[in-house]
Amino acid sequence: MSEPIFLTIDDTVVSVEPEATILQAATRIGIRIPTMCYHKATTSCAICRLCVVEVEGSRALIPSCVASAGPGMVVHTRTARVERVRRTILEMLASSIDLSEAPELQAHMRDYSVDITRYSGCQRRCPPILDDNPMYIRDYAKCVLCWRCVQVCAEDAQYTYAINFSGRGFETLISTFYDRPIMESTCVFCGQCLGVCPTNALKPKREWLLEQGQSLDEIIETTRIEKRTCMSRLADPSSEPERKQP
Fold first, then answer.
1. Class for domain 5-78, per CATH?
2. Where do the domains of the chain lie?
């Protein structure tokens, strides 16, 4: 068994296994580092950079979710530089994305005194809600591109590979291959993508219909009809107009 290593985080010495990350080491001693793309059920990818920390001797800030804890390392999690970066990331997200159903991010915004009007002149991301199956809706106006849903759909859990990134820059979205409807993808409706989404960009269809004011009886009937329609289309592809290949 490998010997534990010792490092200092915010003036507190902590011992961890050699393969531990800085985020794991901080969590062990009760230090809360904000995260967005990180989830315990998915592989850390350091996309969002919300979890950056300052390590003495390092020129750049370090993403704690992927950076290994090193022996003798001295880490600071709430310096002015770190807080400024986190605040800016959250302000930029709030300028273009609907975070109204993202409780964890809202808590971070309060913690870092985010000014949601700082980039108020920026263009908002307003793609239409995708309602193409009887199980869940996709509201990518709320999507922060955290990658969690793609990961659980792939090697981290389901091995279905129904979704991935599509587009570039501001136009980047989570999409199916060739932008096909979900029912024509490899999705098996396991629901794991909904479980890891931090913003409710993915939401169960019945919950969404309740929010639209439909009664329970109406919802049951609506989803029952949709299921029958989708299944008949899958069983008889000729029932739909032929689509042009991209």
1. alpha beta
2. 5-78, 136-239
- The residue type of 227 is K
Q: Is 53 in a helix, a strand, or coil? A: strand
Instruction: Give tens-digit pLDDT for 179-202.
Output: 888 888 999 899 999 999 999 999
Count CA atoms closer than 13 A to 134's CA, side-chain side.
13
Strand residue runs (E) in the chain: 5-9, 12-16, 52-55, 62-63, 74-76, 136-138, 163-166, 173-176, 202-204
Q: What is the pLDDT of residue 226?
A: 66
Which residue positions in the chain have pLDDT lower than 70? 1, 225-246
Helix spans in the chain (H): 22-28, 80-96, 103-111, 148-153, 192-196, 205-211, 216-235
Q: Whose CA is closest to 72, among 29, 2, 8? A: 8
Q: Is the dihedral of CA 51, 63, 118, 172 positive or negative?
A: negative
Multiple choice CATH, 136-239, 2.30.29.50, 3.40.50.2300, 3.30.70.20, 3.40.50.150: 3.30.70.20
Say how many Å lie between the first and final Cα of the chain, rounded: 54
Would the pTM count as exceeding 0.90? no
